[in-house]
Amino acid sequence: MAARIEHLVTSGTFSLDGGTWDVDNNVWIVGDDSEAVVIDAAHDADAIAEALGDRTLTAIVCTHAHNDHIDAAPALAARTGAPILLHPDDLPLWKQTHPDRLPDGELSDGQQVSVAGVELTVLHTPGHAPGAVCLYAPELGTVFTGDTLFQGGPGATGRSFSHFPTIVESIRARLLALPPETVVRTGHGDSTTVGAEAPHLQEWIDRGH
Length: 209
Fold this sequence. Notes:
Order of helices and strands: EEEHEHHEHEEEEEEEHEEHH
Mean pLDDT: 97
Low-confidence stretches: none
Strand content: 25-35%
Radius of gyration: 16 Å
Helix content: 10-25%
């Protein structure tokens, strides 16, 4: 059974620097009929567990540690036994949400997460958060970008732990180098492609000056 990508939208709040906003998050499930990984366990462990059904969850991968992307991760891990994986540079953010529960493993640049016969390659793409990562699956023709790259440009960099020149460099060096037909599956909102976003790089650079 070939690996496939499934998509859930969950709703909740994002809180940082004393503000709170209502948000809808994309939760991505990659796997086949027997096993899967979850990318960003947002808001609703019950809904994610229901979507998984009786499949074995092999990992809960966090693209970064803003609370709206990790708030349901410990509950999902408790239900499934799956390890939570996070880049260590995002531990300060993680601890704001889950001070008593550390992730189970670390993500590092170039690491491969295997599921259902496909490899998800970890790309460290700091900027939106210090430990932000994207997951590139060439066999599936897609990259999961969390909040690093959206349809229309880079993720937000106006709050703590974020930096606009860094995110633009991450996108330029790591994401726009991927094949243009690569589908960009984002942390919020609609998907796009590398080729659709690449022509706008200079606009983003100019916006930051």
